[in-house]
């Protein structure tokens, strides 16, 4: 079943978000302004702000969300985009979402400054929400990003790390923002503390599943669908769920990782090994486990209004269907 129609249900909110983003990230310096324009013209599904809006609609129990919810959705997308700019510099990616990355168009220095600028802009708008609890919750995400990148940098080409360490790193790099923005949206709706935490856990498991699925797609998708070269994680030594599960079966893959893919044909050969193993299936099972946990949390909450929370269930199903 195609669950992508969940975005069409949010079309007006997301169109408003896209319009606002361009004015929010405008910079006085023409180079920074051009970099910001380029980033947001690349589009994307706007998954994270869509989740913020869905939480808002569910917890408010009405279709019209507050202006503070809309602003939080915009802040979430700015923070996410800033992290991608820095990720692309670190991973030396040339394309993202099918378009050239900021550092490949301008320079590494401009890309780093553009990412810093977006983080600063998000912090300013966050402070202007005038809600200390939301500020505290969301601002922690920026430190989590940095910790995630440092952790990833320390374990490049290290096949001895555990799946638990991979999950922890995935939380810092991806799930932290989704979890915190879900909780922040619930806070703005002024629901009770227990329900806020349930929204956080929903976002955490959704985010972990999303990262695992991204890591699977890095192996099984095509460059045109992915918007960047396949096997990028593998080439950069970022070991992910499908790789870990394959290592249990393949000594050859282990040897190639230890040698950091020294031969030109190693990456292509490694992808073939992973595809022919049980690694992809086990990674899919792990992603599905996190999606089912997220949906279970929403089903627990939906006694408030089942119809409104159904959108959050559809979002979980949409994320999972990306690999089927």
Automatic annotation (TrEMBL):
Cross-referenced InterPro entries: Isoprenoid_synthase_dom_sf, Polyprenyl_synt, Polyprenyl_synt_CS
Q: Keywords in UniProt for this one?
A: Chloroplast, Isoprene biosynthesis, Magnesium, Metal-binding, Plastid, Transferase
Family per record = Belongs to the FPP/GGPP synthase family.
Q: Give one GO term, molecular function aspect.
A: metal ion binding
**Database matches in Pfam families:** polyprenyl_synt (PF00348)
Q: Which cofactor does it need?
A: Mg(2+)
List the GO biological process terms.
isoprenoid biosynthetic process; quinone biosynthetic process
Q: By what name is this protein known? A: Prenyl transferase
Gene3D superfamilies named in the record: Farnesyl Diphosphate Synthase
């Amino acid at each position: 079943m195609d669950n992508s129609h969940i975005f069409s249900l949010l079309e007006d909110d997301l169109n408003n978000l896209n319009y606002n983003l361009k004015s929010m990230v405008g910079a006085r310096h023409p180079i920074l302004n051009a970099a910001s324009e380029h980033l947001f013209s690349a589009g994307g599904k706007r998954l994270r702000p869509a989740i913020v809006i869905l939480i808002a609609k569910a917890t408010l129990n009405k279709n019209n969300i507050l202006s503070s919810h809309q602003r939080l959705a915009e802040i979430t997308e700015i923070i996410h985009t800033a992290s991608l700019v820095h990720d692309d510099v670190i991973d030396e990616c040339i394309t993202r979402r099918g378009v050239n990355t900021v550092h490949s168009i301008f320079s590494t220095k401009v890309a780093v400054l553009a990412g810093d600028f977006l983080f600063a802009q998000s912090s300013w708008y966050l402070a202007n929400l005038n809600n200390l609890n939301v500020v505290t919750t969301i601002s922690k995400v920026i430190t989590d990003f940095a910790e995630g990148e440092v952790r990833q940098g320390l374990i490049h080409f290290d096949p001895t790390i555990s799946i638990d360490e991979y999950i922890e790193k995935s939380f810092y790099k991806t799930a932290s923002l989704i979890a915190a923005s879900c909780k922040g949206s619930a806070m703005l709706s002024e629901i009770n503390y227990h329900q806020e935490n349930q929204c956080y856990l929903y976002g955490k498991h959704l985010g972990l599943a999303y990262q695992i699925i991204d890591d699977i797609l890095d192996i099984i998708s095509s460059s045109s669908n992915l918007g960047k070269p396949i096997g990028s994680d593998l080439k950069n030594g970022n070991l992910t769920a499908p790789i870990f599960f394959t290592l249990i079966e393949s000594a050859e893959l282990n040897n190639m990782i230890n040698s950091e893919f020294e031969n030109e044909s190693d990456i292509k050969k490694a992808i073939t090994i992973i595809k022919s193993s049980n690694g992809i299936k086990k990674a899919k099972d792990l992603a599905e486990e996190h999606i089912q946990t997220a949906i279970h949390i929403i089903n627990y909450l939906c006694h408030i209004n089942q119809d409104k929370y159904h959108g959050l269930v559809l979002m979980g199903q949409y994320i999972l269907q990306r690999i089927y």
